[in-house]
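$ ./design --mode recover --in tokens.txt
reading tokens...
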């Protein structure tokens, strides 16, 4: 079993920045990738960003390219999402996902609200 704890969400104004964190813990596991997804009210879950744990290669959803940056701290089993130039349409619950040799897990999510 792997547990994920997200933090860093909040209420900001358009144009502001936020940094989300997601820490993974549990018995010994190997991580394949970690990613961020988001869920806005009335909308389908959307892919935001992904990082391959071994290589550090990153992938981004079209709506966040050039504004968001995903990074990782291997020693801390933590992934970060630096969000710049936030827009009201970025308002959502942001969920962390981890794919490991023990399965795929999701966190509870952290709310990000961007006011115009």
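writing sequence...
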């Amino acid at each position: 079993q792997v547990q994920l704890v997200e933090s860093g969400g909040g209420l900001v104004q358009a144009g502001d920045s936020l940094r989300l964190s997601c820490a993974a813990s549990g018995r010994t596991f190997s991580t394949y990738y970690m990613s961020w997804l988001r869920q806005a009210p009335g909308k389908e879950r959307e892919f935001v960003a992904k990082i391959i744990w071994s290589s550090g290669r990153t992938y981004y959803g079209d709506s966040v390219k050039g504004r968001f940056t995903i990074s990782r701290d291997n020693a801390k089993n933590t992934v970060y999402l630096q969000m710049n130039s936030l827009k009201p349409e970025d308002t959502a619950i942001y969920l962390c996902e981890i794919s490991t040799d023990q399965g795929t897990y999701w966190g509870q999510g952290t709310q990000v609200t961007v006011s115009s």
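exit 0
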